[in-house]
Amino acid sequence: MTLMRVLSRKAMQAGSSAPCKIWATGFLCGVCIMFLSGVALPPLRVPQSRSVDPPLRRAILWNFTLTEHDGVAVTGESASAQEKIEERKRDNHATEARILQLYSAWSSMLNTASDEVLKSSDVPWPPHLDDCKLNVERNKRFDSYGENRTFPHWTLWKGSLGLELLNQKYSENANQYRQYPPWILGSDEENYPLTRRVQRDIWIHQHPPNCSDPSLRFLVADWERLPGFGIGAQLAGMAGLLAIAIKEKRILVTNYYNRADHNGCHGASRSSWSCYFFVETSSDCRKRAFQLMQIKASWAEGSVKVKENYTSKQIWAGRIPRMWGEPWKYLQPTTEINGRLITSHRKMDRRWWIAQATRYLMRFPTEYMCGLLNVARHSAFGLEAAKLVLESIQNDSLKV
Fold this sequence. Notes:
transmembrane; membrane; three-stranded parallel beta sheet; transmembrane helix; alpha-(1->6)-fucosyltransferase activity
């Protein structure tokens, strides 16, 4: 505005004529128009700035486009991945349903008295369960004399296969000195020294061919039932009684067993060790022992004795049979004191003997005990077994 005042003053001084006034007015208007045009229009450097903007803008648009397209692609991939996840979930649910269905079928089999339903259906046999009936039938043959009072078939075995077992003509050649008791598994190195020989000798001692022989003597003993005595203490006590019976050439006959005094054990197995495992001697010898207990002369002659005829020291700390020498001296040391393994101590013989007696008393489980073990295994491994069985079936179908 200062420039306009100066120009106006100069123009007024230049002349006061009309033409001059008109010219001055036109000049001033032109100056004003130019001034206003200069203010309204952008400076000359603006076009240079515009020349820089498009690449940046194109980059922004390009990035946005890429982001948008990537977003579409990612969205597509996410949708595909989501579908796969959902499909995988459906497959997992279907697989879990099949596993539970197979597990339930096996569970129902455990609750039935017969497996005929399983054999007639398409349900695969559970690999973690035993066929209790078949096992008991087989073990009864193992635990009794053959025809004409010949020794059991397992004394014929020449190896772990026992292929001669089903051939009846071998009964005539049965040999008591063959050391293959079927309840001992693994190699000799995996068992305590002389285990197979000791188990065979205990079985022969406890199963005389003729239980009516008047020269036979018996030791009838109840299981320990004092408060606080667990199954381990009961087995240790019975091991001591078995040692006494063998040293005195008596047949051990177990009597009352408090842990079998319940409704799960039926008939003669009620309150008896035979509810869980095969009896320690034959049924004929048990009958003979209980008959002698009713005869006063048998007590006087010493044909029958009971646990009360012996002191606690004799039962719990008495000498073990030495007819096999001292095999416990060959045991691998397992007792550690102050960081050192003790190679020999005064309890090694009793530890070895308790293991032998326990193994004999628990040699064959009954059908009831087999069922209990099946239930326990099924509870622990049933679902995993069902999964493995279904995977195996699926793999076999893919191979076909």
